[in-house]
Here is the input.
Amino acid sequence: MLEGSCLCGAVHYQINGELGAAMMCHCQKCRKSNGSAYAINAAVNTADFHLLSGVDVMRYHASSADARRYFCGQCGTPIYSQRQSAPELLRLRIGSLDSEVEIDKQCHIFVGSKACWDDITDDLPQYDERP
Here is the structure.
């Protein structure tokens, strides 16, 4: 079991399952929604994700016709994104976890649109778009 929350503490969640491999996404939407060089996201089965508190403050932004980005409406902490075409999975923003966890970092995606000041210094595979 893993637990996570937002910065202000209004949103708490629990994951009763495993995290998928993590991808570092460098696309402009992830940069803007996280305020950083990239977002580290891991797939989670929707059935394993349980919102314990904060249902009333959770908000989403439809960043495309298919994708929604869910966040705390009080403090703005990004929690996860989900594609309408794949409701069985969500992409958890790893930074919202409170539990200590080993992350299986798989690759960097959308490197073709990364910020010019962002230097990738590891040996993980890099893809211009989603593989």
Notes: The radius of gyration is 14 Å. The mean pLDDT is 94. Residues 2-113 form a domain with the Metal Binding Protein, Guanine Nucleotide Exchange Factor; Chain A fold (CATH 2.170.150.70).
